[in-house]
Amino acid sequence: MATQGKDRSADRYLPTLAYIMDRLDDCRAECEESAQNKPEFSVVATAAKAAWERCEKYFNDIDNTPTYYAAVILQPHQRLAWFQSEWQHSTDPIRQGWYEPSVEAVRQLWQSEYKGQFRATASTSMALPQKVKRTEEEDYLYAYYHPKISTDAVDAFEEYINAAPTALKHGESAITFAQSIEHSKPDLAAFIYDMAAIPAMSAECERVFSSAKLLLRDQRNRLLPIMIEAYECIRHWLLNAKDDILARQPLKHDKDMVRDERQMQAEEGDGDYAQQDNDDSDDGDDDFNGSYEVLDDQM
Length: 299
What we know:
This protein is an all-alpha fold and about 300 residues long. It has helices spanning about 15-35, 40-60, 65-75, 80-90, 95-115, 135-145, 150, 155-160, 175-180, 185-195, 205-215, 225-245, 250-265, 270-280, 285-299; strands spanning about 120, 130. The chain contains 15 helices and 2 strands.
């Protein structure tokens, strides 16, 4: 369950898999010890060993890409803490040897794909940093006016991983952290955005494929890929907005707050608010419940 759901990103995958493998190993050891007195436990020990070997296959596949390592490191509340506690400070020499290669793989990904490749946008709203595209002459002038001695003095990624983990408050995430640094450190913000967008499981992606299959009927067999993408994005956003509204139960409470405010203003001598409050008394519920109908129609 730790990796399921549309809000679960790839940072959950590695710690969850490691936890499962540790519990399976403990179960196997306990069952093998119990099997000395009760032979039936040998069956459970064999099953736990088979499950551990299957998890080991998935665990070894993680080395094919640094994405899963980066997803954990780029969580502000983790950074290097999980790798240090589970691998670097482990009593197992084998696990200790995993620490440096994993961090170095993420460092290489940063240097090859993100460092110096993005610039901040002028907008103050949430917008992804834009990748820099310059001509050869512009590259020369940029290198002249921006020597690497000054730009490399403080590496944003090294500064980030060497800092202490940041405790996240309710409602905060790696995305909100990236929003706070996207103008000062656009490269690092883009790195965090990309890693946070990778789901822990493929279930959500499969749902998008199924939805696109329902969209591409015989009457819509000439839709451009950009239109299909736009439709799926809008559909996803509307569904999320509907879930937020349904989860936000105190709609009636909001209406009462507006009504109380109008009543207070009416008592102060403003008769327009009192008249407007009386006019809204009969159909106020329809106004606040209309959002449900609009979203249902748009589905």
